[in-house]
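Figure S7 source data.
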Amino acid sequence: MRTSDDTSTRVFSNLVDGKWVASSSGRLFDNRNPADDRDLIGRFQESTPEDAERAIAAAARAYEEWRFVPAPRRAEILFRAAQLIVERKESFARDMTREMGKVLEETRGDVQEAIDMTYFMAGEGRRMYGQTVPSELRDKFAMSVRQPLGVCGIITPWNFPMAIPSWKIVPALVCGNTVVFKPSSLTPLSAINFVKVLEEAGIPPGVVNLVTGGPDVGTVLSTHEVIKVVSFTGSTAVGRLVNQNAAPGFKKVHLEMGGKNIIIVMDDAQLELAVEGCLWGGFGTTGQRCTAASRVVVHEKVYEEFLGEFARRAKALHVGNGAQDGVQVGPSVSESQLATVMKYVEIGKREGATLVTGGHRLEQGEYARGWFHEPTIFGDVQPSMRIAQEEIFGPVVSVMRCGSLAEAVEIGNGVAYGLSASIYTRNVNTAFAAMRDMYTGIFYVNAPTIGAEVHLPFGGTKATGNGHREAGIAALDVFSEWKSIYVDFSGRLQRAQIDVE
Ligand code: UN1
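Tokens for the predicted 2-aminohexanedioic acid complex:
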């Protein structure tokens, strides 16, 4: 194992060309616990465009070797990495809760998702199926194979600090690409934990490079001519910028952006189950998932009953430091994220929605040093209200009424985004109609909008994405491109479409 930075000083480095190095800026940024801002987790490199360029150059050099390593051998390294994450799951989860706030049970899930993805993609090292098809000509052989593209720029958010990097980096590697990785500045420790595992598992120098901090790094990753693929998860505004930056160079761009996901509760739903699902979908991860159920539309026949129970249960959720037993909802990730939540609560009140429960920042006693907010539910929400249209990314759920499935679907689809949706019903016909008619990338029946598994495609329609999917074998399509190969063994000229007799 190569030595990395000295964590006892709590100063962390970039990884460039297999070496842990300081940024050329000489500057560091602080990473603090959102449950307690006195808790300084560490200081990380505030990187410059020059750091990013060095990392890209290293990745380009490493690509010339890595692409020739047989995919099953690349995969062996990834299997080892997965095993190392299994062994460190608890400590990685604790680091993650400390740096971004979600409760331990959920950070364990985040690390588990990285384990699952790494095992799944490592398995692809021995598959990566192409097609073998008959040729229309007699002595000719036809097939397609996946080829890597080169250096990939990976830009990831803070809400799934290990899972989402794994969704991108692992398929990139198994396909034979090399990587420059810029994690969110709110969760650099989880990124470093992941990259160190890859390094320790045997990923060669330069194949994975890590550059923390600074929006300028993202700009370099989305514009530099050597970068062939940019994979980004984050806000729609930044995703649009990444797309624009990458367009002149015809880069392959994979974007995974916002959501305004809906749970439909029909009058024949098992109400207790629906309430449970709405609590988990709306307030799990403090509502900070792209897949969060920030909208619920309830059939008018059961609206009052549902809302009463939903509010009662939301009020009883235990908010606190996610590292403590029994806490169900952690803080918002940062002061500015909390400010966004509070802004939307005001908007909801101004728009005339009924504040059913919550609505306040928590700042007394144990909450004094963190970014806590009450789980908040608005009722009587109109579908056109901003709280029903815009992504809030916090513990705020908007509840609406409908009179039929058709109306619920119209409300459901009536937003800019299309990531996830779900329905609670006991009627199989209703379930299948909703499954067909909700225009989203993910759909659930009798389960909330969160909980995607790593072996199916993940992503959304409309402003959520740009048509690509991550996870599942669909992820291979982002990080490889097809080459169709024809082998003529006739010893003469055979002409496709011409020699048809
Ligand atoms: C995200 O919200 O950005 O399906 C990812 C889920 C998780 C992944 C969420 N497995 O909610």
